[in-house]
Amino acid sequence: MLTLDPEDSLDFLRTARMATYVFLISGPTLHLWFNFISKLFPKKDVVNTLKKMALGQAVYGPIMKSVFFSYNAGLQGETLPEIIARLKRDLVPAITSGLLYWPTCDLITFKFVPVHLQPLVSNSFSFLWTIYITYMASLKKADACGCGHEYVAVVK
């Protein structure tokens, strides 16, 4: 049976932050992105599928990861220098991890799924990704002053 210790109880504030991000930012941008990219590359052949994947990894992914980390840190009360330090620390590892995860998801989505269902399928793949990205977002504040403070993840 899966149980939580009292100190590990559900964090409603973090849940609310994630829900508002998904409903206000992620969901609408995915809808716009998939419609845009399907008009840019309408065919589902291998070349166009690879173009969609590459554009997603080069443009959409880095932008949305930056938005996610900034949004989450801002709602946690981090200052602009702290948000910038967090992006410097966390963005490249998140993009690198995304390059390992998302191409397979994108291949399946772009090659086999009708455009109107692509955001739904992508959100399904996002479930596992969200576990990783929220872990990254849960890391303590980054060193904004450049004085070498080490911050580690709070993992229980």
TrEMBL record:
Cell location: Membrane
| Name by which UniProt lists this protein | Peroxisomal membrane 22 kDa (Mpv17/PMP22) family protein
Q: Where are the transmembrane segments?
A: 20-41
Query: What does the similarity note say?
Result: Belongs to the peroxisomal membrane protein PXMP2/4 family.
What is its membrane topology? Multi-pass membrane protein
Entry keywords, A to Z:
Membrane, Transmembrane, Transmembrane helix
Q: Which InterPro entries match?
A: Mpv17_PMP22 (IPR007248)
Report the GO terms under cellular component: cytoplasm; membrane
Major subcellular location class: membrane
